[in-house]
User: Fold UDP-glucose 6-dehydrogenase from Streptomyces phaeolivaceus.
Amino acid sequence: MRVSVIGCGHLGAPHAAALAELGHDVIGVELNPETVKKLQSGRSHFYEKGLDELLDRHVPAGRLRFTSSLSEAAEFADLHFVAVGTPLRADGRGYDVGQVVGAVRALAPLLRRPATIVGKSTVTVGTVARLQEIITEHAGSDGVDLVWNPEFLREGHAVEDSLYPDRIVVGLTSSAAEENVREVYAPILARGDAELIVTDPATAEVLKSAANAFLSTKISYINAMAEVCEITGADVATVAHGIGIDPRIGHGGMRPGIGYGGGCLPKDVAAFTHRVGEIGATGAADLLKAVEKVNHARMDAAHDLVERAYGGPLDTATIAVLGASFKAGTSDVRNSPALRLAGLLHSSAARTVIHDPESVAAARHLHPEYSYAEDIRTALDGADIVVLATEWPEFTKDTALPTTAARVVRRRVLVDVRTAVNTSVWTAAGWTVHQLGRPVQHPTA
Ligand SMILES: NC(=O)c1ccc[n+]([C@@H]2O[C@H](COP(=O)([O-])OP(=O)(O)OC[C@H]3O[C@@H](n4cnc5c(N)ncnc54)[C@H](O)[C@@H]3O)[C@@H](O)[C@H]2O)c1
Assistant:
Protein backbone atom coordinates (compact mmCIF):
# COMPACT_ATOMS: atom_id res chain seq x y z
CA MET A 1 0.00 0.00 0.00
CA ARG A 2 1.03 3.64 -0.30
CA VAL A 3 1.06 5.06 3.19
CA SER A 4 2.21 8.21 4.94
CA VAL A 5 3.36 8.66 8.52
CA ILE A 6 2.86 12.19 9.80
CA GLY A 7 5.25 13.01 12.65
CA CYS A 8 8.58 11.15 12.57
CA GLY A 9 9.66 11.15 16.21
CA HIS A 10 10.17 8.25 18.60
CA LEU A 11 6.95 6.58 17.46
CA GLY A 12 6.65 7.75 13.85
CA ALA A 13 10.19 7.04 12.59
CA PRO A 14 10.25 3.37 13.71
CA HIS A 15 6.65 2.95 12.52
CA ALA A 16 7.48 4.33 9.05
CA ALA A 17 10.58 2.12 8.80
CA ALA A 18 8.61 -0.95 9.93
CA LEU A 19 5.87 -0.30 7.36
CA ALA A 20 8.54 -0.21 4.64
CA GLU A 21 9.96 -3.47 6.00
CA LEU A 22 6.44 -4.95 5.78
CA GLY A 23 6.46 -4.16 2.06
CA HIS A 24 4.61 -0.85 1.83
CA ASP A 25 5.68 2.30 0.01
CA VAL A 26 6.09 4.88 2.73
CA ILE A 27 6.44 8.63 2.94
CA GLY A 28 7.28 10.15 6.31
CA VAL A 29 6.19 13.74 6.93
CA GLU A 30 8.04 15.72 9.55
CA LEU A 31 7.87 19.42 10.45
CA ASN A 32 11.49 19.66 11.57
CA PRO A 33 13.67 20.10 8.44
CA GLU A 34 16.82 18.88 10.25
CA THR A 35 15.02 15.64 11.13
CA VAL A 36 13.87 15.21 7.52
CA LYS A 37 17.44 15.69 6.30
CA LYS A 38 18.85 13.20 8.78
CA LEU A 39 16.20 10.53 8.11
CA GLN A 40 16.51 11.02 4.36
CA SER A 41 20.25 10.36 4.72
CA GLY A 42 19.31 6.92 6.09
CA ARG A 43 20.13 7.71 9.73
CA SER A 44 17.86 8.34 12.68
CA HIS A 45 18.02 11.52 14.76
CA PHE A 46 17.88 9.42 17.95
CA TYR A 47 19.17 6.02 18.98
CA GLU A 48 16.69 3.17 18.78
CA LYS A 49 17.93 -0.39 18.40
CA GLY A 50 17.64 -1.65 14.80
CA LEU A 51 16.22 1.58 13.36
CA ASP A 52 19.28 2.67 11.38
CA GLU A 53 19.46 -0.78 9.78
CA LEU A 54 15.89 -0.44 8.45
CA LEU A 55 16.48 3.14 7.26
CA ASP A 56 19.68 2.03 5.59
CA ARG A 57 17.81 -0.72 3.77
CA HIS A 58 14.69 1.12 2.65
CA VAL A 59 15.66 4.78 2.09
CA PRO A 60 18.28 4.10 -0.64
CA ALA A 61 15.87 1.57 -2.20
CA GLY A 62 13.23 4.33 -2.49
CA ARG A 63 10.63 2.37 -0.52
CA LEU A 64 10.84 4.91 2.30
CA ARG A 65 11.33 8.65 1.95
CA PHE A 66 10.93 11.69 4.12
CA THR A 67 9.57 15.14 3.40
CA SER A 68 8.18 18.20 5.11
CA SER A 69 5.46 18.52 2.48
CA LEU A 70 2.07 17.34 3.66
CA SER A 71 0.59 17.88 0.19
CA GLU A 72 3.18 15.50 -1.27
CA ALA A 73 1.98 12.89 1.25
CA ALA A 74 -1.70 13.63 0.55
CA GLU A 75 -1.06 13.16 -3.14
CA PHE A 76 0.97 9.97 -2.69
CA ALA A 77 -0.77 7.90 -0.01
CA ASP A 78 -4.18 6.34 0.56
CA LEU A 79 -3.66 5.71 4.24
CA HIS A 80 -2.21 8.33 6.60
CA PHE A 81 -0.87 7.50 10.05
CA VAL A 82 -0.85 10.40 12.49
CA ALA A 83 2.03 9.97 14.94
CA VAL A 84 2.61 13.53 16.16
CA GLY A 85 3.23 14.42 19.80
CA THR A 86 0.66 14.84 22.56
CA PRO A 87 2.65 16.49 25.35
CA LEU A 88 1.16 17.30 28.71
CA ARG A 89 -0.41 20.76 28.84
CA ALA A 90 1.68 23.36 30.63
CA ASP A 91 -0.83 23.39 33.53
CA GLY A 92 -0.70 19.55 33.72
CA ARG A 93 -4.45 19.32 33.13
CA GLY A 94 -4.50 16.77 30.31
CA TYR A 95 -2.86 16.57 26.90
CA ASP A 96 -2.11 19.40 24.57
CA VAL A 97 -3.64 17.82 21.44
CA GLY A 98 -2.68 20.82 19.29
CA GLN A 99 -0.24 18.80 17.13
CA VAL A 100 -2.88 16.15 16.40
CA VAL A 101 -5.64 18.63 15.66
CA GLY A 102 -3.20 20.72 13.59
CA ALA A 103 -2.03 17.74 11.51
CA VAL A 104 -5.55 16.47 10.78
CA ARG A 105 -6.85 19.97 10.09
CA ALA A 106 -3.98 20.56 7.62
CA LEU A 107 -4.29 17.14 5.95
CA ALA A 108 -8.07 16.95 5.48
CA PRO A 109 -8.50 19.60 2.75
CA LEU A 110 -5.49 18.21 0.85
CA LEU A 111 -7.17 14.82 0.39
CA ARG A 112 -8.68 14.74 -3.10
CA ARG A 113 -9.74 11.08 -3.12
CA PRO A 114 -11.08 8.62 -0.54
CA ALA A 115 -8.48 7.93 2.15
CA THR A 116 -8.11 6.59 5.66
CA ILE A 117 -6.60 8.63 8.47
CA VAL A 118 -5.22 6.37 11.19
CA GLY A 119 -4.47 8.04 14.51
CA LYS A 120 -1.60 6.49 16.48
CA SER A 121 -0.85 9.24 18.98
CA THR A 122 -2.06 8.77 22.55
CA VAL A 123 -5.07 11.02 23.13
CA THR A 124 -7.72 11.72 25.72
CA VAL A 125 -11.04 10.02 25.36
CA GLY A 126 -13.23 12.27 23.20
CA THR A 127 -10.46 13.47 20.85
CA VAL A 128 -11.51 11.19 17.98
CA ALA A 129 -15.03 12.63 18.00
CA ARG A 130 -13.52 16.13 17.77
CA LEU A 131 -11.27 15.12 14.86
CA GLN A 132 -14.18 13.47 13.07
CA GLU A 133 -15.99 16.82 13.05
CA ILE A 134 -12.92 18.49 11.52
CA ILE A 135 -12.74 15.84 8.79
CA THR A 136 -16.45 16.07 8.02
CA GLU A 137 -16.15 19.82 7.68
CA HIS A 138 -12.81 20.15 5.87
CA ALA A 139 -12.05 16.95 3.88
CA GLY A 140 -11.34 17.66 0.23
CA SER A 141 -13.15 14.48 -0.84
CA ASP A 142 -15.93 12.13 0.20
CA GLY A 143 -14.89 8.82 1.74
CA VAL A 144 -12.25 10.13 4.15
CA ASP A 145 -12.45 7.80 7.16
CA LEU A 146 -10.88 8.17 10.58
CA VAL A 147 -9.79 5.27 12.80
CA TRP A 148 -7.87 5.26 16.06
CA ASN A 149 -5.08 2.74 16.29
CA PRO A 150 -3.17 3.44 19.52
CA GLU A 151 0.42 2.30 19.71
CA PHE A 152 1.84 0.04 22.42
CA LEU A 153 5.49 -0.13 21.36
CA ARG A 154 8.18 0.01 24.02
CA GLU A 155 11.03 2.44 23.40
CA GLY A 156 14.25 0.48 23.17
CA HIS A 157 12.23 -2.23 21.37
CA ALA A 158 10.35 0.09 19.00
CA VAL A 159 11.39 -1.63 15.78
CA GLU A 160 10.76 -5.14 17.08
CA ASP A 161 7.42 -4.11 18.59
CA SER A 162 6.33 -2.39 15.37
CA LEU A 163 7.11 -5.49 13.32
CA TYR A 164 5.88 -8.00 15.90
CA PRO A 165 3.16 -6.26 17.96
CA ASP A 166 1.27 -8.34 20.52
CA ARG A 167 -2.01 -6.59 19.64
CA ILE A 168 -3.47 -4.19 17.11
CA VAL A 169 -6.31 -2.11 18.50
CA VAL A 170 -8.55 -0.31 16.04
CA GLY A 171 -11.32 2.07 17.04
CA LEU A 172 -13.54 2.49 13.99
CA THR A 173 -15.73 5.43 13.09
CA SER A 174 -16.87 3.61 9.93
CA SER A 175 -16.79 -0.04 9.00
CA ALA A 176 -15.35 0.79 5.55
CA ALA A 177 -11.98 1.70 7.13
CA GLU A 178 -11.55 -1.74 8.72
CA GLU A 179 -10.60 -3.26 5.36
CA ASN A 180 -7.77 -0.73 4.84
CA VAL A 181 -6.40 -1.27 8.33
CA ARG A 182 -6.50 -5.05 7.84
CA GLU A 183 -4.66 -4.61 4.53
CA VAL A 184 -1.85 -2.44 5.93
CA TYR A 185 -1.27 -4.88 8.78
CA ALA A 186 -1.88 -7.99 6.63
CA PRO A 187 1.71 -9.33 6.89
CA ILE A 188 1.48 -9.15 10.69
CA LEU A 189 -2.05 -10.55 10.92
CA ALA A 190 -1.13 -13.42 8.59
CA ARG A 191 1.38 -14.66 11.20
CA GLY A 192 -1.48 -15.14 13.63
CA ASP A 193 0.46 -14.06 16.72
CA ALA A 194 -1.03 -10.58 17.13
CA GLU A 195 -4.61 -10.17 18.26
CA LEU A 196 -6.68 -7.67 16.27
CA ILE A 197 -9.15 -5.87 18.51
CA VAL A 198 -11.77 -4.02 16.48
CA THR A 199 -13.76 -1.66 18.63
CA ASP A 200 -15.21 1.85 18.88
CA PRO A 201 -12.96 4.94 19.20
CA ALA A 202 -13.74 5.61 22.88
CA THR A 203 -12.73 2.05 23.83
CA ALA A 204 -9.50 2.35 21.80
CA GLU A 205 -8.67 5.64 23.53
CA VAL A 206 -9.37 4.32 27.02
CA LEU A 207 -7.63 0.99 26.33
CA LYS A 208 -4.33 2.76 25.58
CA SER A 209 -4.54 5.02 28.64
CA ALA A 210 -5.58 2.09 30.83
CA ALA A 211 -2.59 0.03 29.62
CA ASN A 212 -0.05 2.71 30.56
CA ALA A 213 -1.84 3.46 33.82
CA PHE A 214 -1.76 -0.22 34.80
CA LEU A 215 1.91 -0.56 33.96
CA SER A 216 2.67 2.50 36.08
CA THR A 217 0.55 1.12 38.90
CA LYS A 218 2.53 -2.11 38.86
CA ILE A 219 5.82 -0.21 38.94
CA SER A 220 4.64 2.01 41.80
CA TYR A 221 3.25 -1.00 43.65
CA ILE A 222 6.58 -2.81 43.80
CA ASN A 223 8.34 0.47 44.60
CA ALA A 224 5.92 1.00 47.50
CA MET A 225 6.79 -2.53 48.67
CA ALA A 226 10.47 -1.51 48.47
CA GLU A 227 9.64 1.24 50.96
CA VAL A 228 8.02 -1.36 53.25
CA CYS A 229 11.09 -3.57 52.92
CA GLU A 230 13.44 -0.68 53.77
CA ILE A 231 11.59 -0.20 57.07
CA THR A 232 11.23 -3.88 57.94
CA GLY A 233 14.63 -5.08 56.74
CA ALA A 234 13.02 -7.41 54.22
CA ASP A 235 14.33 -7.97 50.67
CA VAL A 236 12.05 -6.57 47.97
CA ALA A 237 13.76 -8.55 45.19
CA THR A 238 12.69 -11.79 46.87
CA VAL A 239 9.23 -10.36 47.54
CA ALA A 240 8.87 -9.37 43.85
CA HIS A 241 10.03 -12.79 42.70
CA GLY A 242 7.80 -14.62 45.15
CA ILE A 243 4.60 -12.74 44.41
CA GLY A 244 5.24 -12.74 40.66
CA ILE A 245 5.10 -16.53 40.53
CA ASP A 246 1.33 -16.20 40.83
CA PRO A 247 0.20 -15.88 37.18
CA ARG A 248 -2.44 -13.36 38.25
CA ILE A 249 0.43 -11.09 39.33
CA GLY A 250 3.34 -12.01 37.04
CA HIS A 251 6.96 -10.82 37.05
CA GLY A 252 6.71 -8.16 34.29
CA GLY A 253 7.26 -4.59 35.48
CA MET A 254 8.11 -5.83 38.97
CA ARG A 255 11.74 -4.72 39.19
CA PRO A 256 12.06 -2.15 41.99
CA GLY A 257 13.83 1.08 41.15
CA ILE A 258 13.61 4.85 40.83
CA GLY A 259 10.24 4.79 39.13
CA TYR A 260 8.87 5.21 35.64
CA GLY A 261 9.92 7.98 33.27
CA GLY A 262 10.24 8.70 29.56
CA GLY A 263 8.12 10.43 26.97
CA CYS A 264 4.98 8.39 27.70
CA LEU A 265 4.17 7.00 31.16
CA PRO A 266 4.55 10.20 33.23
CA LYS A 267 2.45 12.32 30.89
CA ASP A 268 -0.04 9.56 30.13
CA VAL A 269 -0.69 8.86 33.81
CA ALA A 270 -0.95 12.59 34.57
CA ALA A 271 -3.34 13.22 31.67
CA PHE A 272 -5.47 10.16 32.47
CA THR A 273 -5.58 11.06 36.17
CA HIS A 274 -6.84 14.50 35.27
CA ARG A 275 -9.37 13.22 32.75
CA VAL A 276 -10.86 10.49 34.96
CA GLY A 277 -11.20 13.04 37.75
CA GLU A 278 -12.87 15.46 35.36
CA ILE A 279 -15.47 12.91 34.28
CA GLY A 280 -16.19 11.94 37.89
CA ALA A 281 -14.42 8.55 38.06
CA THR A 282 -13.11 9.39 41.52
CA GLY A 283 -11.96 5.88 42.44
CA ALA A 284 -9.71 5.74 39.38
CA ALA A 285 -8.46 9.28 40.01
CA ASP A 286 -7.52 8.52 43.63
CA LEU A 287 -5.75 5.30 42.64
CA LEU A 288 -3.70 7.03 39.93
CA LYS A 289 -2.82 9.97 42.18
CA ALA A 290 -1.32 7.47 44.64
CA VAL A 291 0.64 5.86 41.78
CA GLU A 292 2.12 9.25 40.86
CA LYS A 293 2.89 10.07 44.49
CA VAL A 294 4.85 6.85 45.00
CA ASN A 295 6.72 7.47 41.76
CA HIS A 296 7.89 10.91 42.90
CA ALA A 297 8.79 9.70 46.39
CA ARG A 298 11.16 7.01 45.13
CA MET A 299 13.45 9.67 43.74
CA ASP A 300 13.99 11.08 47.24
CA ALA A 301 14.49 7.54 48.55
CA ALA A 302 17.20 7.02 45.91
CA HIS A 303 18.92 10.26 46.90
CA ASP A 304 18.89 9.19 50.57
CA LEU A 305 20.28 5.79 49.61
CA VAL A 306 23.21 7.45 47.82
CA GLU A 307 23.83 9.59 50.89
CA ARG A 308 23.80 6.54 53.17
CA ALA A 309 26.10 4.67 50.80
CA TYR A 310 28.54 7.58 50.79
CA GLY A 311 28.28 7.84 54.53
CA GLY A 312 27.23 11.47 54.94
CA PRO A 313 26.35 14.72 53.14
CA LEU A 314 27.26 14.62 49.49
CA ASP A 315 28.96 18.00 49.20
CA THR A 316 32.40 16.40 49.26
CA ALA A 317 31.47 13.45 47.02
CA THR A 318 32.49 12.75 43.46
CA ILE A 319 29.88 10.45 41.95
CA ALA A 320 30.00 8.55 38.68
CA VAL A 321 26.42 8.28 37.37
CA LEU A 322 26.08 5.46 34.86
CA GLY A 323 23.09 6.14 32.61
CA ALA A 324 21.20 9.20 31.43
CA SER A 325 18.47 7.86 29.15
CA PHE A 326 15.15 7.02 30.79
CA LYS A 327 15.73 3.34 30.07
CA ALA A 328 18.20 1.14 28.23
CA GLY A 329 18.05 0.78 24.44
CA THR A 330 17.11 4.38 23.63
CA SER A 331 18.74 7.80 23.68
CA ASP A 332 15.48 9.35 24.90
CA VAL A 333 16.09 11.51 27.96
CA ARG A 334 12.58 12.91 28.29
CA ASN A 335 11.54 12.72 31.94
CA SER A 336 14.51 10.47 32.63
CA PRO A 337 14.67 9.24 36.23
CA ALA A 338 18.45 8.88 35.80
CA LEU A 339 18.84 12.56 34.97
CA ARG A 340 16.42 13.57 37.71
CA LEU A 341 18.51 11.69 40.24
CA ALA A 342 21.69 13.22 38.80
CA GLY A 343 20.00 16.62 39.25
CA LEU A 344 19.19 15.89 42.90
CA LEU A 345 22.78 14.80 43.54
CA HIS A 346 24.02 17.88 41.73
CA SER A 347 21.88 20.14 43.92
CA SER A 348 23.32 18.41 47.00
CA ALA A 349 26.61 19.87 45.77
CA ALA A 350 28.02 16.49 44.81
CA ARG A 351 30.37 16.50 41.84
CA THR A 352 28.63 14.18 39.38
CA VAL A 353 30.00 12.85 36.12
CA ILE A 354 27.40 11.21 33.90
CA HIS A 355 28.09 8.62 31.24
CA ASP A 356 25.61 6.92 28.92
CA PRO A 357 26.35 4.75 25.87
CA GLU A 358 23.89 6.61 23.62
CA SER A 359 22.42 9.70 25.23
CA VAL A 360 25.26 11.98 26.38
CA ALA A 361 24.52 14.45 23.55
CA ALA A 362 20.77 14.54 24.28
CA ALA A 363 21.38 14.84 28.03
CA ARG A 364 23.94 17.61 27.57
CA HIS A 365 21.49 19.46 25.35
CA LEU A 366 18.80 19.23 28.05
CA HIS A 367 21.11 19.83 31.04
CA PRO A 368 24.27 21.64 29.97
CA GLU A 369 24.92 22.43 33.66
CA TYR A 370 25.92 18.81 34.47
CA SER A 371 29.29 17.18 33.73
CA TYR A 372 29.46 14.32 31.25
CA ALA A 373 32.00 11.73 30.17
CA GLU A 374 32.06 10.23 26.70
CA ASP A 375 33.44 6.95 28.00
CA ILE A 376 32.86 4.90 31.10
CA ARG A 377 36.51 4.89 32.18
CA THR A 378 36.60 8.72 32.36
CA ALA A 379 33.35 8.75 34.35
CA LEU A 380 34.67 6.24 36.88
CA ASP A 381 38.19 7.64 37.20
CA GLY A 382 38.58 9.13 40.68
CA ALA A 383 34.89 8.77 41.62
CA ASP A 384 34.19 8.14 45.30
CA ILE A 385 31.18 5.99 44.55
CA VAL A 386 29.24 4.73 41.51
CA VAL A 387 25.50 5.13 40.92
CA LEU A 388 23.95 2.85 38.32
CA ALA A 389 20.94 4.81 37.06
CA THR A 390 20.02 3.18 33.73
CA GLU A 391 20.08 -0.56 33.13
CA TRP A 392 22.24 -0.63 29.96
CA PRO A 393 23.78 -4.09 29.40
CA GLU A 394 27.19 -2.34 29.19
CA PHE A 395 26.79 -1.67 32.93
CA THR A 396 24.83 -4.71 34.07
CA LYS A 397 26.01 -7.63 31.93
CA ASP A 398 29.73 -6.91 31.57
CA THR A 399 31.14 -9.25 34.21
CA ALA A 400 34.59 -7.65 33.86
CA LEU A 401 33.27 -4.19 34.84
CA PRO A 402 33.41 -4.66 38.63
CA THR A 403 37.11 -5.56 38.41
CA THR A 404 38.11 -2.85 35.93
CA ALA A 405 36.05 -0.22 37.76
CA ALA A 406 37.62 -1.22 41.09
CA ARG A 407 41.03 -0.12 39.77
CA VAL A 408 39.99 3.50 39.18
CA VAL A 409 37.35 4.38 41.81
CA ARG A 410 38.26 5.56 45.31
CA ARG A 411 35.75 3.31 47.10
CA ARG A 412 34.17 0.13 45.90
CA VAL A 413 30.62 1.27 46.57
CA LEU A 414 27.87 0.76 44.00
CA VAL A 415 24.38 2.21 44.37
CA ASP A 416 22.22 0.32 41.88
CA VAL A 417 18.91 2.22 41.83
CA ARG A 418 17.54 -0.05 39.05
CA THR A 419 18.08 -3.37 40.84
CA ALA A 420 19.80 -4.39 37.65
CA VAL A 421 23.20 -5.90 38.47
CA ASN A 422 24.05 -9.41 39.51
CA THR A 423 25.15 -8.41 43.01
CA SER A 424 27.27 -11.50 43.58
CA VAL A 425 29.57 -10.58 40.67
CA TRP A 426 30.16 -7.16 42.26
CA THR A 427 30.52 -8.33 45.84
CA ALA A 428 32.98 -10.99 44.66
CA ALA A 429 35.10 -8.17 43.20
CA GLY A 430 35.13 -6.44 46.59
CA TRP A 431 32.20 -4.08 46.15
CA THR A 432 29.50 -3.06 48.62
CA VAL A 433 26.19 -2.92 46.74
CA HIS A 434 23.22 -0.79 47.80
CA GLN A 435 19.80 -1.28 46.16
CA LEU A 436 16.40 0.20 46.99
CA GLY A 437 14.39 -2.01 49.35
CA ARG A 438 17.17 -4.56 49.82
CA PRO A 439 19.66 -5.24 52.60
CA VAL A 440 23.17 -3.94 51.82
CA GLN A 441 25.26 -6.61 50.06
CA HIS A 442 28.81 -6.72 51.47
CA PRO A 443 32.01 -7.78 49.72
CA THR A 444 32.66 -11.48 49.70
CA ALA A 445 36.27 -11.05 48.63
N1 LIG B 1 7.53 7.24 22.12
C1 LIG B 1 6.87 6.12 22.29
O1 LIG B 1 7.45 5.09 22.60
C2 LIG B 1 5.37 6.05 22.12
C3 LIG B 1 4.71 4.82 22.31
C4 LIG B 1 3.33 4.78 22.16
C5 LIG B 1 2.63 5.93 21.89
N2 LIG B 1 3.30 7.12 21.75
C6 LIG B 1 2.53 8.31 21.43
O2 LIG B 1 2.88 8.71 20.13
C7 LIG B 1 2.83 10.12 19.99
C8 LIG B 1 4.17 10.63 19.50
O3 LIG B 1 5.13 10.39 20.50
P1 LIG B 1 6.68 10.52 20.21
O4 LIG B 1 7.38 9.99 21.40
O5 LIG B 1 7.01 9.94 18.87
O6 LIG B 1 6.82 12.13 20.14
P2 LIG B 1 8.00 12.94 19.46
O7 LIG B 1 7.93 14.29 20.05
O8 LIG B 1 9.26 12.15 19.53
O9 LIG B 1 7.57 13.01 17.92
C9 LIG B 1 6.55 13.80 17.42
C10 LIG B 1 7.02 14.36 16.07
O10 LIG B 1 5.93 14.92 15.36
C11 LIG B 1 6.41 16.05 14.66
N3 LIG B 1 5.26 16.87 14.26
C12 LIG B 1 4.42 17.60 15.04
N4 LIG B 1 3.44 18.15 14.31
C13 LIG B 1 3.64 17.76 13.03
C14 LIG B 1 2.97 17.98 11.81
N5 LIG B 1 1.87 18.74 11.74
N6 LIG B 1 3.47 17.43 10.68
C15 LIG B 1 4.58 16.66 10.73
N7 LIG B 1 5.27 16.42 11.86
C16 LIG B 1 4.80 16.94 13.00
C17 LIG B 1 7.37 16.71 15.64
O11 LIG B 1 8.25 17.58 14.99
C18 LIG B 1 8.06 15.49 16.24
O12 LIG B 1 9.21 15.13 15.51
C19 LIG B 1 2.44 10.64 21.38
O13 LIG B 1 1.05 10.79 21.43
C20 LIG B 1 2.87 9.51 22.29
O14 LIG B 1 2.14 9.51 23.49
C21 LIG B 1 4.65 7.20 21.83
In short: The chain has two domains: 2-199, 201-445. The domain at 2-199 is CATH 3.40.50.720 (Rossmann fold). Residues 6-12, 29-32, 35, 83-86, 99, 102-103, 121-122, 151, 153, 155, 263-264 surround nicotinamide-adenine-dinucleotide (CB under 6 Å).
